[in-house]
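Translate sequence into structure tokens.
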Amino acid sequence: MSSEPQQTLARSASVSGTSLHTGEKVTLKLQPAPVDHGIKFKRRDLQEEPTVDATISNLKTVERATTIGGVVTAGPRAGGGFRVEAHLPTAPSPEAVSSR
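Result follows.
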């Protein structure tokens, strides 16, 4: 059992988009977890649906990865609850690309 304060989500949330490397449609689902569960990733795109703990020992180098920037912040709300905010870069407009 962890001695550090723990927090979880009040309810499930999801976001969908397009995979950076494959161009496939993907969905990220975040779900509340019990005490001492930790952060885990479940691969629903594979038949066996493996679950991987989000730990530094499971971090792997991926040569095709591209850093695109952005900022994610999270923390408790002043009036209660929890807030997660992401600021992600967008693709440049066609006008901006053609003027380079």
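Note: The radius of gyration is 17 Å.
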